[in-house]
Specification:
Radius of gyration: 25 Å
Shape: elongated
Number of strands: 11
CATH topology of the largest domain: Immunoglobulin-like
Largest sheet: 4 strands, antiparallel
Distance between the termini: 91 Å
Helix content: 10-25%
CATH class of the largest domain: Mainly Beta
Structural class: mainly beta
């Protein structure tokens, strides 16, 4: 009886040891600007965090690094549903997380980090299986909506006299990946509607359409 009990205890210990063993699992994350290219080093990258959706445990964190990707592949080539937009140089963040069971992982991207005034956040979640790497093709791809807007005029903290009748409004606007918006370009300025909302003392005054300047 004692021998049988000892064998049973040993078996349970071995089983517990096996089931609790963590398996390194690779996850690669890419962030692409909505309607444009990847958010990479040229824009300071995007801050990436991976966490357990249920327990909120932080699994990994870092910044996407690399190029905005191939313009030819992303913007000019017809692709099918499962075709990859990225190449070996496209911006990404890769981490290895240790998990011992199927884990509900949430990935969050915040950026672009070089233009904090226009930064946005996007999140996605999915179940990740131990040892089943998420790194093929575009891997875990997040789409970041919005535009990068730098207000050039009037300057920050400028004070305007009450008798001033005309104020110049000027802004530099690009895609979130830093791709330029110009007339007849890949991101055609003539196809975007840009307006400035003018307020005084937090009260709405008017909405002003802006046009592209060379």
């Amino acid at each position: 009886m004692k021998n049988t009990l000892a064998i049973l205890i040993t078996t349970l210990m071995l089983f517990t040891s096996v089931t609790a063993h963590s398996i390194p699992t690779t996850i690669t994350v890419r962030v692409i600007s909505k309607g444009a290219k990847f958010v990479g080093t040229s824009m300071g990258g995007a801050q990436i965090t991976l966490q357990n959706k249920i327990t909120k445990e932080l699994l990994a964190a870092g910044v996407t690094k690399g190029s905005t990707g191939s313009t030819e592949r992303i913007m000019k080539t017809a692709t099918h549903r499962n075709d990859s937009l990225s190449d070996e140089n496209s911006a990404k963040f890769t981490a290895s997380i240790d998990i011992n069971e199927p884990t509900w992982v949430e990935v969050t991207a915040y950026g672009p980090l070089a233009q904090i005034q226009s930064a946005n956040t996007v999140s996605l979640s999915q179940w990740v299986i131990p040892g089943k790497h998420v790194d093929g093709g575009d891997a875990w791809l997040l789409e970041l909506p919005g535009f990068v807007v730098d207000v050039l005029a009037p300057p920050t903290h400028s004070r305007l006299r009450d008798d001033v009748e005309t104020v110049q409004i000027q802004a530099n606007i690009t895609m979130m990946c830093g791709c330029p918006i110009v007339p007849k370009g890949l991101w055609d300025a003539d196809k975007y509607e840009i307006r400035a909302i003018v307020k005084k003392n937090s009260e709405w005054m008017e909405e002003v359409p802006l046009s592209w300047m060379s």
